[in-house]
Amino acid sequence: MIFHIRQQPPLQPDDGPIAIVLAPTRELVQQIHNVAQPYFNLFGIKSLCIIGGDEREKQINEIGEGKEVYICTPGRLEDFLESKITTLFRVTFIVLDEADKMLDLGFETQVRNILADFKTGKSSSAKYSQNKTFSFHIIIRFLLV
Question: Which CATH superfamily groups domain 2-141?
Answer without folding.
Answer: P-loop containing nucleotide triphosphate hydrolases (3.40.50.300)
